[in-house]
Design a protein that fits this description.
It is built from six helices and eight strands, in the order αβββαααααβββββ. It has about 325 residues and is of the alpha+beta class. Helix 3 runs antiparallel to helix 4.
Length: about 325
């Protein structure tokens, strides 16, 4: 009986690779469903093949598929008009970009003094009139209280009013300058914002995605390498069991590599041979025991030398 040969890794890998390609192609063909919806049609068809040299130098071909989207007449008209509008906007933006280049080459300028003067000219007539009325009212109030002009209490109140009037005018200048700066900056940015809006025109959605998703089929791959490995392990276990039965040896004894040196045996009689041509004998061990069946270590490549100087046989390797 001959031990089963282990599978060739390269042959197994090539077979597994071919089955993987078959699975991928099958799944592609199953999932390449043509779609028809209100926006148009989407078709899938094989339009040729792709080829490559694999790691072993073999030429392998795989199908090449093409997906085609055709819009309905109404959607095609909308698409054409949208494209035309985007082309017009892009052309306008391109024309304006030349202006923008020159425009941005000039630094932004803002005059504080001009802004302050502008705010003063706009609001001072009303504020100065109010301040004059406030001063007249304060003078009358102080006189009615008997506080004489030029006295310390008089000077303190007039100083307070003068400071309040100065703070009011300063606040007018600050507020006016801030407002003028915002307006100047907005005027500076307006041409930039307009051109940016032209350049960021809306994009047309792909109508093929609006009709829902096609059902997708999942194709399970074949674990060919695993199946080959499992079969080899099963064949090997079956061989070892048969060898153990033929030679009257249990699996534990086989695993222990029993003594099979001819020098340890007596009453040796040949009774047959294995499928690989190794002679089979019946014998007894010289130290006693029943008749057994097996091979001689000196006649097989499965022999293992023991440190004692006698040989054992690994029956799992006997051919």
């Amino acid at each position: 009986m001959k031990a089963p040969s282990p599978p060739d890794p390269m042959v197994t890998a090539q077979a597994q690779g071919g089955m993987n390609r078959d699975t991928a192609i099958t799944q592609m063909q199953l999932n390449g469903v043509d779609t028809i919806n209100p926006w148009g049609t989407v078709t899938n068809e094989q339009t040729g093949t792709n080829g490559f040299l694999d790691s072993q130098g073999n030429w392998v071909e795989t199908p090449k598929f093409t997906q085609t989207t055709t819009l309905s007449p109404q959607q095609q008209a909308i698409f054409d008009q949208s494209q035309s509008a985007q082309g017009n906007l892009a052309g306008l933006a391109n024309q304006q970009s030349a202006f923008l280049q020159d425009y941005l080459s000039q630094p932004f300028k803002f005059g504080n003094s001009e802004a302050e003067q502008w705010a003063y000219d706009r609001a001072s007539p009303r504020i100065l009139k109010q301040q004059a009325q406030n001063e007249a009212g304060l003078r009358a109030t102080l006189a009615n209280k008997g506080i004489r002009e030029g006295s310390d209490p008089w000077n303190a109140e007039m100083s307070r009013l003068t400071n309040a009037n100065s703070d009011q005018m300063n606040q007018l200048e600050l507020t006016g300058r801030g407002q003028a700066f915002s307006e100047a900056l907005a005027g500076r940015n307006q041409p930039i914002n307009e051109i940016t809006a032209l350049l960021s025109g809306s994009q047309v959605s792909n109508p093929a995605t609006m009709g829902g998703q096609s059902p997708q089929a999942g194709v399970g791959g074949v674990d060919y390498a695993g199946l080959v490995g499992d079969k080899y392990q099963a064949d090997l276990a079956n061989y070892q069991n048969k060898m153990g039965g033929i030679f009257g040896l249990g699996s534990s004894i086989i695993g222990a590599i029993p003594w099979s040196d001819r020098r340890l045996k007596t009453d040796i009689k040949r009774v047959g041979e294995t499928d690989g041509g190794t002679p089979i004998y019946t014998y007894r061990y010289k130290d006693g025991g029943p008749v057994q069946m097996g091979v001689m270590a000196q006649e097989t490549d499965a022999a293992v030398m023991d440190p004692s100087g006698y040989m054992r046989v690994d029956y799992a390797r006997v051919e």
